[in-house]
Amino acid sequence: MNCVNYLLPKDIDTEELFVLGQKETLSFYDLKQQVFMLAGALRKKYGCGNKIILLSPNNNFCIVSYLAIMKSGNVVVPLNPSTEKQQLQFVKAQTGCEVMFVPEVLKRRIEVPFKDVWCEADIQSICKDGSTFDSIEADELDPDTLAQIIYTSGSTAMPKGVMISHRNIIANTSSIVDYLNLTSADIMEVVLPFFYCYGLSLLHTHLRVKGKIVLNNNFIFLGSVYKDFEKYKCTGFAGVPSHFQILMRKSDTFVKTQFPHLRYVTQAGGKLHSVFIEEFRKAKPDIQFIVMYGQTEATARLSYLPAERLDDKLGSLGKGIPGVQLKVVDDLGHAIKPGQIGEIIAKGDNVMLGYYKDEKATAQALRNGWLYTGDLATLDEEGFIYHAARKKEIIKVGGRRVSPKEIEEVIVSIPGVVDCTIKSIHDEVLGEAIKAVVVKNDANAELDENSVKEFCSTRLAAYKIPHIITFTSKMDVNAAGKKVKKQEG
Questions:
Q1: Do residue 42 and residue 100 come from a single domain?
Q2: Helix/strand/coil (H, E, C) string of 8-75?
Q3: Could you say which of 48, 175, 381, 489 is the most buried, measured as most Cβ atoms within 10 Å of its Cβ?
Q4: Which residues constitute the domain of residue 456?
Q5: What gap in Å lies between CA 54 and CA 57, rounded to an integer?
Q6: Residue 282 covered by a domain
Q7: What is the model's pLDDT at position 252?
Q8: pLDDT at 133 over 60
Q9: Chain segment 200-231, per-residue pLDDT in tens
């Protein structure tokens, strides 16, 4: 089955809107017509199986192009519109892409040549013609056919291309709709980009249930987010840790303002320290807070913690979502006992096909039908999983293993601290030493290195106290809002 056939609603009203926002709107009817017509044109011109790059911010052009490319039987490669020339050249060469979709306003910035470049006017021309619709509406394909390649961000090397099939998208969308209980009444405030799997999951799920999405590409202007909540009566908000840290510690407006229509929020894209969850729940007790965990390699989602279990399972990433089996295993692949630490592995129809043109990395990640996530965790007697760290993040101080998240959890509990990043630095004696980069707000301007170390000394073993502490007023995040952690020598 083509995932676009699964996502697009069958019965639609010609006037009912799917996309809401200040700049543009889009009805389900117009979306479906444009997707089918553009898909027909792409099939006619290029056939199937070609890799096509989509480089766009969240807008109607992006949504129509994204769905049409997959509907046509081709493979969409969504990229950050700020992708640098070197990475764009790498992706183009690896995938053999000769076709790109990009908004007219960004076209002149592209320094890498493509055979064909599609902009808004090209889609408009196709849709006015209407002659390319043909019989593509009823067209089907093998669900294990490659639908998209999502490139994961890399700080020291070129990114890896995660191959996602039509079956992967259908399975993950179905699971998320199930456990979030999404319906056509849901309206999602979208600040996450669609080149990021978490952002795409919002598009997929709300399209599937015939809900609505509000596009907001300006989370940095918090006032615009609050206005969207009120104007469009948003029922849902999805964010990565930095979004909630900023909402809770950078502005009093969110805490003090009531949003009566907001039913739930979801958080993924990294571990949000428990202190922020507790602050959110205290300020907004009527809004469900749902912790989730996932990877691009799993299409988007692997686990969730129901809001009603936050009281007794705070700090947990929950259990596997419907249709996904999770285990925590030791180095030999054996299931660990509660309290021990091992690696999270997963199995389900949402797990990727592999890494594009990287057999070695694929063999390391996919073993005996299981996805090895690279995330270390423990579990309790009831099987709830607690994330410890990424394997590569563990710091060895004088031979003792230290999890950065444990130290970060302590430091962010200091009033006025917005964020903390623990890094390893080279040390002649210990091998590795600990450095803390602390983001503080104006309310705690007097916080200094000695006071942080003194606070840590009451809650951490001596070898876990950071050796060096620096301060900044700005979080270091990427285009998806996820924290960027760079190791130092």
A1: yes
A2: CCCCCCCCCEEEECCCCCEEHHHHHHHHHHHHHHHHHHHCCCCEEEEECCCCHHHHHHHHHHHHCCCE
A3: 175
A4: 396-472
A5: 10
A6: yes
A7: 83
A8: no
A9: 999 999 999 999 999 998 887 788 999 999 99
